[in-house]
Amino acid sequence: MDAHGPLCVGIDPHASLLRAWGLPDDVGGLREFSLRVVDALGGKVAAFKPQSAFFERHGSRGLAVLEEVIAAARAAGPGSTAGSGSTLTIVDAKRGDIGSTMGAYAEAFLADGSPLAGDALTVSPYLGFGSLEPAIDLAAATGRGLFVLCLTSNKEGFEVQHAVQRHVGTHSGMGSAEPDGRPDGVSVAALMAARAAVLNAGAEPMGSVGLVVGATIGDAVAATGTDLVAVNGPLLAPGVGAQGAGERELATTFGAARRNVLASSSRAVLAAGPDPDALVSAARAAAREATAALRT
């Protein structure tokens, strides 16, 4: 983020985008589209975020392309390790389950040697934050990161994320104490943020357990009592650019936590393709806008 600006470019091979690039909606088009993005922008943006679903819809051959894209992203740019100018990869798979199944997802997306392992993975905590323990442990062991869904911009997210969790337990570190020592009236989003904060405590410059917080959610952070500053982790913010979140919206949503935000933009950058120079120009413009909104 410091080297390239706080911009993550989504690799979302929608059928409509493939057509706009003059490519067929098949595995060949999927591969050409995705690798063109990596070739053009590798080493020039902070992160890529391939959306796993758009590869999975093409079956096993689509997943093979995702493996190729992750490998190409790892090799792209002037450096091949974090901190040396490389572009990191967040695999947007939103996995979430329990027990051995969550452990298997962790092995698939976070284990050294797995062809699907990028630098970070998006995960869903809605079977309970504790269900993510296999992913948390393996990410820590392999030097990778997680982005936990917290406050998303889809209208249905309100039903769960803003809901008040009663008697959630003292381990959350949130809420006012009841006589029995248990906090009361904590929103689910605030609880997720508090759990991430515990995992990131003391990390410099920030921890490796981040949150996904939509850039277009308005005052939902304040409304749910979610302390993003205390999280001390990266905040992945979809919705910047084409979806309408500008400097004012980002300030409203993230406030004093703005410097930890990694703004995710897909359509605003990808629509400039397939010309690689146009992709670079669009990405640099988006990175400048994100820097102006988040770092000033």
Structural commentary:
- With 296 residues, the protein is of the alpha/beta class.
- The protein has 13 helices and twelve strands.
- The chain has an eight-stranded parallel β-barrel, surrounded by six helices.
Relevant terms:
296 residues, alpha/beta, TIM Barrel, eight-stranded parallel β-barrel, 13 helices, 17% strand
CATH superfamily caption: Aldolase class I
Q: What does the average pLDDT come to?
A: 88
Question: Unreliable stretches, pLDDT < 50, 5 or more residues?
Answer: 79-84, 167-183
- Our measurement of the CA-to-CA distance between the termini, rounded to an integer number of angstroms, reads 14 Å
Layout: helices, strands, pairs:
Layout: E1 7-11, H1 15-20, H2 27-41, E2 47-50, H3 52-56, H4 59-75, E3 88-95, H5 99-110, E4 120-123, H6 133-142, E5 145-151, H7 158-161, E6 164-165, E7 176-177, E8 183-184, E9 186-187, H8 188-200, E10 209-213, H9 220-223, H10 228-231, E11 235-238, H11 247-254, E12 261-265, H12 267-270, H13 276-294
Parallel strand pairs: 1-2, 1-12, 2-3, 3-4, 4-5, 5-10, 10-11, 11-12
Antiparallel strand pairs: 6-9, 7-8
Helix pairs in contact: 2-4, 2-13, 5-6, 11-13
Structure in a nutshell:
By secondary structure, the protein is α/β, with parallel strands linked by helices. It contains 13 helices and 12 strands.
